[in-house]
Amino acid sequence: MLLSTLVILVFKLIGNKSILCQDDGEYNSVPPECTHECSKPTLTDMMVLTDDSSLKNDFPDGSKVTIECAYGFEADHGSDTITCTGGTWSDVELVCKKKDCGSPPTSPNLMYNMADGTLLGALIQPVCDEGYYLQGSSYRQCLPFGWSGNVECLLITCDKPTEILNGMITKRPDSELPKMDDVIEYTCNPGFKLIGNKSILCQDDGEYNSVPPVCTPIECQVPHVQFGVLKEKKSNYTHKSEAVFQCQSGYIMEGSPRIVCEEHGWSTLPVCIKESYRTTKKVTATTASTSTSTGSSSTTLGLKEMMPGPPPNSPDSPDLGYTLAVIGCIFFALVVCFCIVAIVRHHIKRKGSYDTGEALKTKEELLLKTPSNLTPI
Ligand SMILES: *[C@@H]1O[C@H](CO)[C@@H](O)[C@H](O)[C@H]1NC(C)=O
Ligand SMILES: *[C@@H]1O[C@H](CO)[C@@H](O)[C@H](O)[C@H]1NC(C)=O
């Protein structure tokens, strides 16, 4: 309930407060008179006396004062005057309401959260569109003079992208300063490789998500091929530089002898294959038609390769005689082996030594040696 006036009945004393009975039997004065008067009116927080009225001290019967709405409040309706009658102020009819600051002035890319309303004391929150950041107060309040603070929404931009050594920016936004979500792409000059992130992104905090990449010279380590030899060995190999391999003697190269230092390392390296092995393999594949001419060592290997399982070339073999010769060869080899083993055993027994691993080893060694002793075939 709005307290409009405080009703206090005051009788003001006019004249002398005390009178004296004199020696002549008369009073020295007439008694004072008491009249109705109002005290200064008491108003709610929303109202004040006008300047004129607030200067007055006496509010005798019938006097009027004017009231107005306090700072930040506005008159809604009702009379702004009250009258003192018989020591009582008349009811205040004026109705004041809180000032309404209304919607704040619009500004580009800016909106307000006005859930709290726009009346005096209300707080509103400015919100910027995506890609913009707020400059100014994060809240504005409706005050008697209007909205407090001032705000602006500014475009989020990142610093000018930095140029890199030995490389360049190959993708960038049209604008001088990249905006949020803009991508900067880097590429290294030929002969250099990119270390780091190829592209960087301007984030909503005005920073890039990564530092720019670095371009470093492409270099290859000294290449190595087993059983191979480098011609003109260098301490370092730059992009597109070449290295040339030879195989050690007795080895044959498969692949190109010339390799190139590429961005991700050397191009395909050659391999050096033992010459005899390679030849034998070929020989075996072509039903060993030339094995007789390849010499003793190749015969050894040829034998070993052919030992496991008889080759399925018998039915339509063009040279049955040769096959028979090979089988005879094997048979002869086995017989020789057997004989040697028998001799060795006999020898060991006669010497009275034990049948230990040593003996076995000897046997194996002999077995291995045997075929090479069969050259005369
Ligand atoms: C590449 O970017 C990611 C973020 O996208 C970052 O976490 C990383 O650290 C960056 N790498 C380098 C080498 O800067
Ligand atoms: C690479 O080799 C060249 C000569 O071939 C030399 O001038 C250069 O300093 C070398 N670079 C490095 C990093 O070793």
TrEMBL record:
Record's keyword annotation contains Nucleotide-binding: no
Domain (Sushi) ranges: 36-98, 99-155, 156-217, 218-274
Organism: Astyanax mexicanus (Blind cave fish)
Protein name, as recorded: Complement factor H-like
Transmembrane stretches, start-end: 320-344
Keyword Metal-binding on entry: no
SS bond partners: 69-96, 188-215
Any single Pfam family the record assigns to this protein: Sushi
